[in-house]
Amino acid sequence: xxxxxxxxxxxxxxxxxxxxxxxxxxxxxxxxxxxxxxxxxxxxxxxxxxxxxxxxxxxxxxxxxxxxxxxxxxxxxxxxxxxxxxxxxxxxxxxxxxxxxxxxxxxxxxxxxxxxxxxxxxxxxxxxxxxxxxxxxxxxxxxxxxxxxxxxxxxxxxxxxxxxxxxxxxxxxxxxxxxxxxxxxxxxxxxxxxxxxxxxxxxxxxxxxxxxxxxxxxxxxxxxxxxxxxxxxxxxxxxxxxxxxxxxxxx
Length: 251
Description:
Elements: E1 2-7, E2 22-23, E3 26-27, H1 28-36, E4 44-50, H2 56-65, E5 69-72, H3 77-85, E6 92-97, H4 105-118, E7 122-124, E8 138-141, H5 142-151, H6 155-159, H7 163-167, E9 174-176, H8 193-206, H9 215-224, H10 239-248
Parallel strand pairs: 1-4, 1-6, 4-5, 7-9
Antiparallel strand pairs: 2-3, 6-8, 7-8
């Protein structure tokens, strides 16, 4: 069984409650779930949020959408993933994050196929990025998730789930999904108000006539309206991870 786990919380420091922000009349998280449900290779999708009262709204949204929801530790996200997966005994777990409303199910399926064909412990399209920031996806075997739960000890390793793999790559067989030409310079994630403005403009342009719009459709739109791509160019990839490392090292 291939289990997709979508992590989401409302306590974003840069854009609070972003996952519940209205995007064409539905919460942004609901729009992302709608896209993820188009994957042909995910057997099941669940949302993993925190057990804090402020995240109860996420659980209620999942109930309305008939999507399973697990509530666990806020900061120990690795433990949250591990506990969320246990009832399903998955052979593989796909890690997804709730700030990616442009997530492409076809890219996710490509990653899953690469991972399975290579029999890797862990695979991603973001270790050596060539996709837009916001199309990130990772997949690991169930055994690898158990290894991470056992061996990851630092605050950053617990919060960022797969950071242990990056730091100890020699312990794992790793697959990388790459695309050419690289689109790593594009920012399609939502961490800042300008990010949401870009995503909202993309949805307004594409969703009404094509709810299942693809990465290529977005690229065509950006080619026609190049000013859109400059709306959110101030911020760097993986700023959240950089912040965690700075706190851990007291920088």
